[in-house]
Write a structure and sequence with these properties.
elongated; 3 helices; alpha/beta; five-stranded mixed β-sheet; about 140 residues; Nucleotidyltransferase, domain 5
Length: about 140
């Protein structure tokens, strides 16, 4: 019985080298970890009222937030009534069916919310939605 030596060229490679694959996956993971914070929207802490029934709203370019301390924020930027009117007019020209989404803290007086809705409605926006949290 003759023994085969390991130097014969007849032996095939029966193992897969996974080290290059692991290296590529780690590089992709690092790229995702570095770029992920760029895609996170800055948020404003608002204590939304809770409601059991709600409908889904379409994405809007008029996202208005009313904070507990009376600050009005439109699309992430502090705004005045004049700035709200100007932005609403600009967005209404782009999309006549635009919807304004109002996120008001539950401690904001009802009159303040109605006042903001009146400012937006005076420009011609006809659709409104109020953001809530499901209990």
């Amino acid at each position: 019985m003759a023994m085969k030596s390991h130097s014969d060229h007849e032996d095939s490679i029966s193992e897969i080298n996974v080290v290059p694959l692991v290296d590529i996956i780690l590089v992709v993971l690092i790229i995702f970890m570095v770029t992920a914070p760029m895609f996170i929207k800055p948020s404003i802490n608002v204590n939304l009222p809770k409601a059991a029934s709600s409908d889904q709203t379409v994405p809007s370019q008029l996202n208005i937030t009313l904070t507990k301390d009376g600050q009005v924020i439109m699309n992430g930027n502090p705004s005045t009534s004049d700035q709200l009117r100007a932005k609403a007019t600009e967005e209404l020209a782009k999309n006549p069916e635009i919807q304004a989404v109002i996120s008001a803290d539950k401690d904001v007086p009802h009159g303040t919310v109605v006042g903001i809705m009146d400012v937006i409605k005076s420009v011609g926006v006809k659709k409104f939605a109020i953001s809530i949290e499901k209990p």
